Amino acid sequence: MALTANKSVASLMQKAINRQAAITRLKFKLSEKQVENIILSYTREGNSGPYVELMKVLKEYPLNDDNFRILFEDCLSCVVLFNRDFSQFVELVCNVEWASRKSELVELFSKFVLSLVTAHTYHCPRVMTCLMRCFKADGENWDESPTDETVSLWSNIHTIIAQIVAIMPMTSDILMRTVIEQFPYYKAGCYINRSYVHNLIWMSKYIPLLQEQIMAAIVTRMVEMDVNIVESNKNKCKDDTMFEMESEEQDVVSETLDYCMLEVLKWLEDERDTAMNVMCNIFERIILPTYGTRHVQFLLLYTISISQQCADRVLNNLWIIAAGLHGLGPGALSTRRTAASHLAGLLARCVRVPNSRLIHYLKSMAEWCHSYITATQESTTATDNTKHHGAFYAICHAVFYLVAFKNHHLFMSKESLLFVESLNLPRLVTCALNPLRSCPPQVTHAFSSVTRAHQVVYCQSIIEKNSRHTLSTVKQQYDEWFPYDPYTLPRSGKKIWPLCIEYKDFLKEGDDESQYSRMTKKMEDDDYLMMATSPKLASSLTNGVTAGFRTSESVFM
Question: What is the residue extent of each domain of the chain?
């Protein structure tokens, strides 16, 4: 009751303020040439009193259409006088609300801005900042597309930006710096972040030279959101005493990332040919070096689902990096391990990756691992140091993961079984480097069950030996990050889920309905949609799925 009363009081106060502002707007009136005379008097005679008063008026008083017209007509006639001393005045003028006014007034503002930046290029960063801030105004979120009124307002802003860049191409660098500087804080709210991303994508279409830089800025911010979500979920698991405010804040970040993913997925779908290459470059530069994200990498899965050419490029590059064939020097181990995780995840999860690619890369991985074992056997300094042999362990674990995950494909016929036997998995399992020791337990057990059932390799004795070793030493730390584990953001998930494959335990038959189809059905229920956006269920989805080796029944427990 008290909270409702406070809201009512605040609402009444806001209405009173708005009413007073409207009255002030009606009373305040500029006369013809008044602004021009003030500027001339300040420039020629140093008369600062009226000039300071004018700036105060611009800062505190809203302008009606008549005052707006007088202000900008006078400013246009004085534009040559606006040297660096007028920086504060220029900023105030550019911050006047203009984008939602009549077309002739918008045209007047546009004419003034273009005249200003061509006459005084040093004002360009300030003008760009004012324009980009217009995309950060608060508003109501949308479902399919923004309202016509909102699109019209944004269109006015984009028209000016496009004209400035067309007239002065060198300003594109200034624009790009401004885009990054003005990016909203990721906790600022869903609408502000989504509208900013939406308009950056819009901008990338009419300034193609900046497309990759703009999309890189968007993905970088989305990675920050994703990492924040992952870290918050980890902290929540460790400490169940998360405050309600923190939980709500975390839910806002998840919702924001969800809608931003929708915007980028729509761009990938609309642009296709031009977007494919851009997204591949961004993945290699930004997403791949980042460890532990849960959602943003699905942009790549979506990309390779659209384009087979991109799929071949991405998978090949990931293998080159993981195998160390790219010539990176010391310090590249973490990137190689991450590349192996991405490669295994895409081969396992992506519906559009054909089995021929799975066979090709499984063979390449196994051959590389066997060559590595041979080399270490011949070396006089061979050790089982996990860090020293980190790339070997990562690729071995990728092989184990794929054999377990794709068991239905790899053991479906005598021919495929012969292929698995040709990988010589017993040598990988029993070698002195002992890759099962550092393999995540859920992968180890799934791999062991599959290979034992098909009489390919027996791992139990080694698993038991490793368990005894672990008990007698420091607790083993496993790398349990699987980048393409089930995607859990509810809205963008509708586009992602049909492109993903669910892990099926080979011991459980008869359940042909995938986890993703179950999610989609539940998403169609409005009651579930309301639950899915709540912190409680969002948390259970995130924490309830590990390693991709849980069945669909366990996801919603």
Answer: 18-138+147-182, 297-472, 490-555
